[in-house]
Amino acid sequence: QVQLVESGGGLVQAGGSLRLSCAASGSIFNIRAMGWYRQAPGKQRELVATITSGGITNYADSVKGRFTISRDNAKNTVYLQMNSLKAEDTAVYYCTQASSGYYMSTSYWGQGTQVTVSS
Known about the structure:
This protein is mainly beta.
């Protein structure tokens, strides 16, 4: 059974940085694409960033140039480095895993971690 466990959320001031981590177990991590979604109160869930098994990344326009997704296959971990945070980045962030090396659809979700950016 696949488990995705996020950590690293918290409260930060606008302009600050946070790094989210997601430890994966129960699957062959290095052949799966990974992603990060977020959902703010009253808003639809948004795909923030994805990374293929080969390391190709993709970002939502709202976070391009500020967020970086990366992966460490030796540690079965994916990261989301978030810089220049804005109040509108406040949301629950979810780690996700795709069913293949390219991000076509989401197969598994983590439990989420809260990120709050104070203005």
